[in-house]
């Protein structure tokens, strides 16, 4: 499977995702933000980090970059797009995903491992997971507090567009298991066609038991089919 990772000034998880993709035997290319054309790609990944130093607003400048125009076109033609952390923020800035990511409820940067529950396992991103499976993934963000309007929240629930929710290790979703204040404990969402996934936790950091765990592996396995 051919993948492309978009790299911005300030991206700091681009190499992490590249290593994970290589481990899973994707044919990957790194694409600089000033490029005006994408390689042929089955999967486009917008990685985590602090694109353009998070000036103005997280993801705001990156959302206007040259290569993003091509990402938007590819997404509208059905290419798979994965935005992780800052990548999720960029996807909301472009309008590819609805909603926004606000400052964490405690107004502090959070870097820790959390539990999330798989809410939809019928997509190209999640098919190798079990429904309601509990994963342990890392989060590292200052603006991970997902928010949207009531109509979109209804759409997310009615159309099964919520990918993951923050939970405790037993799968309970509540304020106690919500690290950043995200609406309805939402940790990741799909667009209406389910070819775009935005998520705040980092699956690429959980692909090797030597350094963490392997709870992120099945996201990549799902993409490989």
Explain this structure.
By secondary structure, the protein is an alpha/beta fold. The protein has a single domain, classed as Rossmann fold, CATH 3.40.50. About 20% of the residues lie in helices and about 25% in strands. It contains 5 helices and 11 strands; from the N terminus they run βαββαβαββββαβββα. The N and C termini lie close together (about 10 Å). The model has no long low-confidence stretch (mean pLDDT about 95).
In terms of structural class, how would the helical and strand content be classed?
alpha/beta
What is the overall shape?
A: globular
Amount of beta strand: 25-35%
**Average pLDDT metric:** 96
Q: What's this, in brief?
A:
By secondary structure, the chain is an alpha/beta fold. The chain has five helices and eleven strands.
């Amino acid at each position: 499977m051919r993948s492309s990772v978009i790299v911005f000034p300030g991206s700091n998880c681009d190499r992490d995702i590249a290593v994970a993709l290589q481990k899973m035997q994707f044919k990957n290319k790194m694409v600089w933000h000033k490029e005006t054309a994408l390689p042929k790609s089955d999967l486009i990944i917008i990685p985590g980090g602090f694109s353009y130093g998070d000036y103005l607003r997280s993801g705001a400048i990156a959302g206007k970059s040259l290569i993003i125009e091509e990402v938007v076109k590819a997404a509208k033609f059905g290419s798979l797009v994965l935005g992780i952390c800052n990548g999720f923020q960029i996807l909301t800035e472009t309008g590819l995903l609805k909603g926004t990511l606000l400052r964490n409820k405690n107004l502090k940067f959070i870097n820790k491992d959390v539990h999330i529950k798989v809410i939809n396992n019928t997509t190209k991103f999640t098919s190798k997971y079990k429904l309601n499976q509990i994963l342990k993934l890392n989060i590292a963000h200052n603006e991970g507090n997902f928010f949207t309007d009531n109509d979109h929240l209804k759409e997310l629930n009615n159309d099964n567009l919520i990918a993951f929710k923050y939970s405790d290790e037993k799968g309970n979703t509540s304020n106690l298991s919500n690290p950043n204040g995200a609406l309805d404990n939402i940790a990741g969402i799909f667009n209406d066609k389910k070819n775009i996934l935005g998520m705040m936790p980092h699956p690429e950091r959980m692909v090797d038991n030597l350094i963490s765990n392997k709870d992120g592996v099945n996201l990549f396995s799902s993409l490989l089919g």
